[in-house]
Amino acid sequence: MKCRREVSGILFSAGAYAFLFVSLLIPGHILSARPVPANEASASPPAIVIGFVGGFIAHDNPVHSEVQLAARLRKEYPAGVDVETFESYRGERAHRKILTLLDTNHDGILTTEEKQNARIIIYGHSWGGAESVILARMLEKDGIPVLLTLQVDSVARPGSNDTTIPVAQAANFYQSNGFVHGNHEIRAADAARTRIIGNIRFDYESSPLKCSQYPWYDRIFVKPHTQIECDPAVWDQVESLIRANLPQGTPGGPSQ
């Protein structure tokens, strides 16, 4: 940790300069700055909410529900909560961001206390849902707990596993129709440590949802997969679960 002292705009008299000079020469009167222990500079980390968009969508594309949810949370929790969105293939980048946010004394090393102070929520749609679980496993290896993962029509890439969940709580929202559809069931890696809130199925065979802001090819070729992403009933539930795990009384946040 760098400590910088600056003295500017102070006018010393000749006598003051003499006193300073003598003080530096007399044993026991050497002037020095006391280093600040790292733990004195520590503070509680923010609650961290990470959202992953699906496919090859840009992390800040405002059409998508994942990005809209993040924007609402940033607006209503301007302090005490850090909200980030990432592409579905940016799990490593999200991991680095979390480590930086948890390192509250900025010494480049996470202590046991800094790890245990973590309050992390991860959500995502499609490949982003699967990436939520991959990120949770990275953090588990680091000894960093995750409060909650939320998967929306989660689709795993070949060779990956979005089914076995290593976090405190998890919920899975899915639909079963179309060429692309989500994982039907998630389960706890350790039933003593993880509560599966539910595997919640939605059906869009007779749905009026048009998702008109989404690209035409999504609405034609992966229609049900797109409908669950644009369904406000799904994201209301996701948002409610996130808010239930955020700090109460956050400055600027909604009244509790």
Low-confidence sequence ranges: 1-42
**What is the helix fraction of residues, given as a range?**
25-40%
- Total helix count? 8
Structural class: alpha/beta
Shape: globular
How many structural domains are formed by the residues? 1
How is the biggest beta sheet arranged? 6 strands, parallel
Strand order of the largest sheet: 2-1-3-4-6-8
Radius of gyration (CA) equals: 25 Å
Task: Encode the helix/strand succession as letters.
Answer: HEHEHHEHEEEEEHHH
Proportion of strand residues? 15-25%
How many DSSP-defined strands? 8
Stated plainly, the CATH topology is called Rossmann fold
- The first-level CATH class name: Alpha Beta
Distance between the termini: 37 Å
